[in-house]
Amino acid sequence: MKENIAINVNLSTSGSHLGGAAIASEYHSRSMAKYFDIELWRMWDCDEEFDMGPLKIKSFQSRTRFPHLEKFMPRRVRACLLDSNILNNLLSYRPSIVHLHNPIPSFAFENIAKQAANSGIKVVASTHGFFEVMHPNYSLKRYEKWLWQQTVTHPIRRALGYMDAVFALYPDEIKMLQEQGIPKHKIHLIPNGVNPFFLKPPQQEDYVHVQDKFGVNTTKPILLFIGNHTANKGLDTVMRVANQLSSPATIVVGGRLLSPDEPDQWAKALPPKPAIDVVFTDYLTLEEQRAFYHLATLLLFPSVSDTLPLTIIEAMACELPVVAYDVGGISYQLAHESGVVVPKGLFTEYLQTVETLLNDQDRCLYLSDNAKIRQQSIFSWESAANKTLSVYKSLLI
After folding, report:
1. In angstroms, how far is CA 137 from the centroid of its own chain?
2. Of 281, 280, 363, which Cα lies nearest the Cα of 321?
3. What's the longest Cα–Cα distance across the chain?
């Protein structure tokens, strides 16, 4: 066994299209690699190896367990059955610790936890996506919920039995993990941090670039949405805001389009009011995101299923007030008046909150000041690295 070596494993269903857990695993690993021998192994759309400073990254091409049956399976089931050669390499390499990020593909998550633990390797996991796994209650039919439980929830619950430590991202997850049978002494509160890129202000040319590229009207307040355009992330709520908002505004919708026709489809389904401009950007670079965080008046985050969104932490770092639904750890992120949290699904209250903040600059400034202070004190990768390494070292005694 390789002594005092940790392998951080990021499982994925999307290859090189990085989601929140993949981004978090990278920055978490990079912060720890300065002090501990760590490698990041990840499911990807190709095999590759490279160094990122002191961190070695190794990608393994994903594959399906049942290639001949794949075309007959629903998309959600296919995602759960993806696999890679990570497990075989772990068992051959035998590090002292395996740290799992992202619980889906669920059967790969379970197999790695089980086989590593049975081989004497210490196993820990961060809870990226656990809230969604345990609460599959958005837009699923009854048979889909049953299928989700069989292919996602149950394998992950079984995997938790092999854990030596689990890192909760926010306090309510501690209770949720205890309900899954994890002893309290194995649970550690370690929130995510923020990409240091967002701690620096944009360049002037970044502002000019986004205004020219996207034709954004900056004479009106800008309401920003950045996220996936899937059903659970709340884009429908954003478009309802555009349809009913009484104040003039520009609504910028960031995130990859589901199809080239998506903007027209939304315009027909929920036409914005005449005083509301809606701009769909498609994919945004980090520079473009940061520029919009600083140009915007509010971040709209009406997701109905989330854990501890990095987008919110980035907005807090950029002093952009957030209006969000109360799901997952968002109320923990925006506690102590660091933003406004509305009960999930109460659209009238959500719209009224947006209306009120658009007419109260002092309140927005108060929220943004609190958000920056809270981000600096709690949501830091350096802090997450120190706490994680303390747990690693206690497991290796």
Report:
1. 18
2. 363
3. 66
What is the length of the chain? 397
Enter the tokens of residue 140: 């699923």
Residue 79, pLDDT score: 77
Do 101 and 217 share a domain, yes or no? no
Instruction: List C-alpha distances in Å: 88 to 47, 79, 106, 269.
Output: 15, 20, 17, 49
Instruction: Give the 3-state DSSP-derived string for the chain, with helices as H, strands as E and coil as C.
Output: CEEEEEEEEECCCCCCCCCHHHHHHHHHHHHHHCCCEEEEEEEECCCEEEEECCEEEEEEECEECCCCCHHHCCHHHHHHCEECCHHHHHHHHCEEEEEEECCCCHHHHHHHHHHHHHCCCEEEEECCCHHHHHCCCCCCCHHHHHHHHHHHHHHHHHHHCCCCEEEECCHHHHHHHHHCCCCHHHEEECCCCCCHHHHCCCCHHHHHHHHHHHCCCCCCCEEEEECCCCHHHCHHHHHHHHHHCCCCEEEEEECCCCCCCHHHHHHHHCCCCCCEEEEEEECCCHHHHHHHHHHCCEEEECCCCCCCCHHHHHHHHCCCCEEEECCCCHHHHCCCCCCEEECCCCHHHHHHHHHHHHCCHHHHHHHHHHHHHHHHHHCCHHHHHHHHHHHHHHHCC
Number of domains within the chain: 2
Q: Are 89 and 206 members of one domain? A: no
Q: Directed axis angle between helix 310-317 and helix 20-33, to 10°?
A: 60
Q: Domain range spanning residue 164?
A: 2-193+380-395
CATH number (domain holding residue 171): 3.40.50.2000
Q: Tell me, what's the pLDDT at 143? A: 76
Low-confidence stretches of the chain (pLDDT < 50) are none
| 157 and 230 fall within a common domain | no
Do 202 and 329 belong together in one domain? yes
Question: Do residue 227 and residue 176 come from a single domain?
Answer: no
CA 292 to chain centre: 19
Q: What is the pLDDT of residue 225?
A: 98
195: its two tokens: 């990409």
Q: What local confidence, expressed as pLDDT, does residue 136 receive?
A: 62
